[in-house]
C-alpha cells in the first residue's frame, strides 16, 4: 500500500508524517544535519547503486552533493502528495540520465539492467536487448529514436493499476508506521467457517476429551480408599494406559492409507493424524508429570509413617511396590526420563533446524517405553495387545515390501538451490495415487535411516518414480554432496573398507552427463506408498493447488495425472489440427477447473519443474467451452512489484515482450511470472467469482504461510487441505 493522494490525506496525518520524516532524517543525517550519498544508500536499503544515485541527484536540488531536510521534504511531498504528472516527471528524470530531456535506447538499457539486478533476476545480454527494444519501440511512437516525456506518459497510461500506486517502495522508512484500526473481530475459533472447516477434527477432539475424563474419574473412584494424591495418580495412570496405546494407533500409516479409500474418511479426521499424534504426545507428557508428582507427594506422606525413606521409595525395589518384583518406582523414573526426552527431541525447533536425525533416533526409544510400561503397570498389556499386534504386522509388511523390491536409483539430476532429483526404477507391483509419499532408505548415505518424501512423478509414468529432495538437514545434504563429487573420494586409513565399498558403488556411475546429470545404479529401499489429503482432489470440482518453493512436489505428480485424464477427454479434428475438450464428468474425475499457484523466492527455483509445466501448457486444448481447464500463476517474491519506481520499467518491458514472444522471459512459460507475493484476498475472490463448483484448496509449503491461507479459506468458505512432506 502507499499513502493516498492529496485529497485523502488529512491535516493531522500530514502533521504526523512531517514529524515522522523529520525524526527519520535526524537519525540518518547525524551531526552535520545533511544526508550524503552513502547515508542515503543505507537508508534506502537499495541493492543497486544506480537508483540511489539517480534519486539522490534529483533530491539534491541545489547540487551541493548533500540533501538538507528542506530538500528531502520538498522531494517527498511531490512523490507522496503530487499529482500523477508530477510523479511521472520524477520518473522520467530518473530514466533521463544525461538530463537531455529525452531518453535514448542506451539510457533505457542501463535503467532496465539496474531494474533486473534490483529484482534479483538474471537474463542473458541478448534478452536484455530484446526487453529494451520492446519497451522502446512501443513507447517511441514517432520513431524519432528517443522517448519524450509525453511518449513515456502515454505508454504508462496503458497500465492504469500502476499509475494509481506509483511510489518508491524502498522509501519505506519515510512512511509512518500504520496505526492499526482496532477492529473487534470474534476470535477465529468462534467463527462458523472455522467450525465448518474443522468439524471432523473438533468432534474427534471432543470425544477424545470426554473419554479421557471418563477414564480419569472412574479410576479415581475405584481407588478412593487410598487418599487424594493416590487417586490422582491412579486417574492419570489409567489415562496413560489409553494414551500410550492411542498415540501408536494414530501412526498406523498403512491402515490409514487403506481407510482413505472408504467412507471412514468422511467421518474421522484421517488427514490430521500427525497433528493428533502430537496432541496425544503432549497429553502423555502432562499426564506423566502429574502422575509422578502425585506419587512423590504420596511417598513423602508414606515415608513419615513407615520405615522407608523417600529415596528408597523412589529409587529402589525395597518397598516392594509394583507387580514385577517391586519395580514400579524404578521403571517409573526411567519412563519419565524417556518421555521427556522424546517430547523434547521431537519439537519443531529440533526437526526443522537440520537435526532430523536427533528426532529420528530418539523416537525409536518407543520400544523401551512400551517394554517398561508392561513391567511398570499390571494392566497395560490388556490395552496394548491388539493395537500392538497390528503395529507389528505393519512393520513386518513394511520391511517385507521394502526389501522384496530391492530398487535402484538409476538417474540423478542436481538442480538449482540444492535440490536432488532422483529417478528410481519402478517395480511392477508398486501402485500409488498422485500426491502419495514414500519412505526411502539409501544404505550408501545412511544404513538405518528412512526419510519421507513425496513422489513427484505421475502414476501413469510406469517405468520410474521421481523424488525431488531439497537439502535441508544432514541426510539430504549428504545425498546432494555425494552426487556432486563422485571422483575425488578421499580414502582415510580407518575407513578403508567402507570407502572401498562406496567407491565400487560409485564406479557403477557409468556415463557422466555433464556436471549435474548422471546415470547410476545405486541400491535403495522404498517403503510405501502412503496416502495424503491430496487423494481428495479428484472429488473436488474446482481445485486450487498452492505450492511454496519445494512444496510443489505433490502437485507435480497431481498435475501430470490430471492432464493425463484430461488428455483422454480431449478431441482432435482429423482434418485440421484444431482441438477442443468435451466436458464429460467421469466417475474418477469431477474436476472442472484447476488453478495452480507456485510461489518461489528466486528465479533459479523455477528451473526445478519448468520443463514439466511447459509440457502441461502445451497439452491444453486450443478451445474449451468454459475457458482454460488448467490455469497457472507464478510468483517470484524477490522481484519488486509493479508499482515500485525501481521496477516499473522492467515490468512493462517484460509484459510487452511476453505479449510479443508469447512466453515469459523469466521462466520461458506462456504464463507471465508475477512480481512479489500473491494478494490472497484478491486471488480467492477471483476463484469464488468463477463459480465452477465446490472449491478445495490444497497447500504444501511453510507452516507460516499455511496459517494465512487457511484463514482466507475460512473467510471464503473453501475447504483447506495441507500436505506434510
UniProtKB/TrEMBL annotation:
Any one Gene Ontology BP term = superoxide anion generation
Q: Which GO terms describe its cellular component?
A: NADPH oxidase complex
**Annotated ranges, domain EF-hand:** 47-82, 83-118, 127-162
Q: How does it sit in the membrane?
A: Multi-pass membrane protein
Give the transmembrane region(s): 202-221, 227-252, 279-300, 320-346, 358-381
For this protein, the record's InterPro entries field holds: EF-hand-dom_pair, EF_Hand_1_Ca_BS, EF_hand_dom, FAD-bd_8, FAD-bd_FR_type, Fe3_Rdtase_TM_dom, Fe_red_NAD-bd_6, FNR_nucleotide-bd
Superkingdom of source: Eukaryota
User: Main site of residence?
Assistant: membrane
Identify the residues that the record assigns to the FAD-binding FR-type domain, covering every copy: 402-536
GO molecular function, one example? calcium ion binding
- Name its cellular compartments: Membrane
* Keyword terms: Calcium, FAD, Flavoprotein, Membrane, Metal-binding, NADP, Oxidoreductase, Transmembrane, Transmembrane helix
Q: State the CDD domains in the record.
A: EFh, NOX_Duox_like_FAD_NADP
Protein name according to UniProt:
NADPH oxidase, EF-hand calcium binding domain 5
Species of origin reads: Dicentrarchus labrax (European seabass)
